[in-house]
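Structure (tokenized):
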């Protein structure tokens, strides 16, 4: 999960848990993107950056890339990406995932995503309730 290494655990959780959109300026300020610019400036900014990188000797670029990628790997990114892929597959086949697919087919993907990210409960009719352990222990119920 690249977000964790880019923005930290707190912002990664906030974005994953809420689905809230953020502006380009906010994405830049939290480190999700390198730079934010207007659409009219984009092509020139990309061209300037590419030309600047192209001026660096290839062997230095290769070594620098290896060092940075190795450091990211040591932080656990490959393992996080593997788990994210596995959990994505599981989530798609959960009761909520199947309900989301059906809702997307009925109202369209864009609207289904808007509903999912609205902050309202998502498919409460198919979701299992969280088990509260204190509900299972009569001695703890009186302390609540």
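Design, position by position:
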């Amino acid at each position: 999960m690249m977000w964790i290494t880019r923005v930290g655990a707190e912002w990664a959780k906030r974005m994953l848990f809420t689905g809230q959109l953020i502006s380009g300026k906010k994405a830049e300020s939290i480190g999700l993107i390198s730079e934010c610019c207007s659409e009219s400036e984009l092509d020139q900014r990309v061209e300037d950056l590419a030309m600047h990188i192209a001026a660096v000797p290839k062997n230095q670029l290769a070594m620098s890339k290896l060092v940075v990628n190795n450091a990211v790997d040591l932080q656990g990114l490959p393992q996080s990406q593997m788990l994210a892929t596995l959990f994505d597959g599981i989530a798609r086949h959960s009761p909520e995932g199947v309900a989301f697919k059906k809702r997307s087919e009925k109202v369209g993907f864009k609207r289904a995503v808007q509903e999912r990210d609205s902050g309202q409960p998502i498919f409460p009719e198919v979701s299992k309730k969280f088990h509260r352990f204190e509900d299972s222990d009569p001695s703890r119920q009186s302390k609540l």
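Reviewer-requested clarification: The two ends are 38 Å apart (CA to CA). The mean pLDDT is 88.
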